[in-house]
Amino acid sequence: MDIIEKLIHAARPKSRRGVAGIWLDEHKLVAAARKVREAGYTKFEAITPFPLHGIDEAMGIPFSWIPWVTLTFCLTGFAFGTWFTWWASAVDWPLIIGGKPMWSLPAFVPIMFECTILFGALASVGALLYICGLPQIDPPVIDPALSSHKFGLFIPEDDTGYNQAAVEKLLKDNGAVEVKRAEF
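^ thats the sequence. predicted structure below, dont judge the formating
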């Protein structure tokens, strides 16, 4: 297996089989997600064309750890910017210009600020890509309209207490206009 095939294999999503329900109204989807969680399912996914208010609480999704990554790398970037400006102006290339000190804090605030923003932004994007499992090559598609005007819930077979007939009934009873076996 050559390097290209290895990269493609690593980027290909690990799909799971299960049951998907499709809704036309986002409010009904949020209510259905709450009911699915109350039924004891914990590994289900919501697929929506735009962010939905209240879906995180309905699904029981905990607060993201990305802000902590951002804070950590912002502080690291600030420390790096401070150290680098000190090292470059006072240690590596010390020049006395007009009787000014070797390292003057106000002169280097923009560099420290930019390093803070750069480190924080790159770490945030990297953490987001890691959490989302991106990039993905040929991701499975339940329904193409889920990216424009429909909303979906996917319950995988490996979820706690999974029973296909019970899952299909649960989704239908909560307003799904279509329920089908899918891979996601």
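The helical segments are 3-11, 26-38, 55-59, 66-92, 105-132, 164-173.
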